């Protein structure tokens, strides 16, 4: 079966499933109690990301986890900002989470494909994102108003330095053949 055919079949099945749930909610109004949550506009972004992830996994394209995690992460940030848990000014340091979201997607795709390099790249992106988040968070604000970034900044810088140092020591030397 071709990749295009698998994608169309998977997309059709996902739409049938979503339509079935919506139809069941209309036919049996009592079911809506099971889906009683506060729906805000960032939830649309999160649902789109979940749909991308499901379609990618079902169609045999696990690399779709990368954009799905980035979009879902942005939706999650917007949800907490819209709910008032985070201020809109927190984008001054929350943007540093984007490489981490990409790293989570790369890690998921690497685990599904069982590609060690992709798993390592995902973990590296997550680590870089955490370090950047700690640095910029300490400079531009406190997460949720109580996390003391300034205390952890030296540790984050030391951890990044140790990581870069050890990574270069254990990386195999590539020989150029002449």
What does this protein look like?
α1 crosses α2. 72% of the residues lie in helices and 0% in strands. It has one domain. 22% of the residues are buried. It has 178 residues and is mostly helical. The protein is flat and about 65 Å long. The chain has seven helices and no strands. The model has no long low-confidence stretch (mean pLDDT 79).
Features:
mainly alpha, 72% helix, single chain, 178 residues
Task: Give the number of helices.
Answer: 7
User: Low-confidence stretches at least 5 residues in length (pLDDT < 50)?
Assistant: none
> Which structural category do the helix and sheet elements fall into?
mainly alpha
Strand tally is 0
Average the pLDDT over all residues and give the rounded result.
79
Relative strand content: under 5%
User: How would you sum up the global shape?
Assistant: flat
* H/E series: HHHHHHH
Distance between the termini: 44 Å
Largest β sheet strand count, sense and barrel closure? none
* Helix residue percentage: over 70%
Number of domains: 1
Based on CA atoms alone, the radius of gyration comes out at 21 Å
């Amino acid at each position: 079966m071709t990749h295009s055919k698998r994608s169309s079949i998977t997309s059709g099945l996902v739409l049938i499933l979503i339509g079935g749930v919506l139809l069941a909610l209309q036919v049996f109004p009592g079911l809506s109690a099971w889906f009683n949550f506060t729906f805000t506009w960032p939830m649309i972004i999160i649902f789109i990301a979940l749909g991308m992830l499901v379609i990618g996994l079902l169609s045999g394209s696990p690399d779709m986890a990368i954009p799905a995690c980035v979009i879902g992460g942005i939706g999650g940030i917007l949800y907490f900002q819209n709910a008032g848990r985070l201020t809109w000014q927190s984008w001054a340091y929350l943007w540093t989470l984007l490489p981490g979201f990409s790293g989570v997607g790369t890690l998921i795709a690497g685990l599904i494909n069982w590609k060690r390099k992709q798993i390592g790249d995902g973990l590296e992106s997550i680590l870089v994102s955490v370090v950047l988040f700690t640095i910029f968070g300490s400079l531009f604000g406190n997460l949720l108003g109580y996390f003391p970034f300034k205390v952890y900044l030296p540790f984050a810088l030391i951890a990044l330095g140790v990581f870069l140092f050890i990574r270069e020591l254990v990386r195999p030397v590539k020989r150029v053949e002449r």
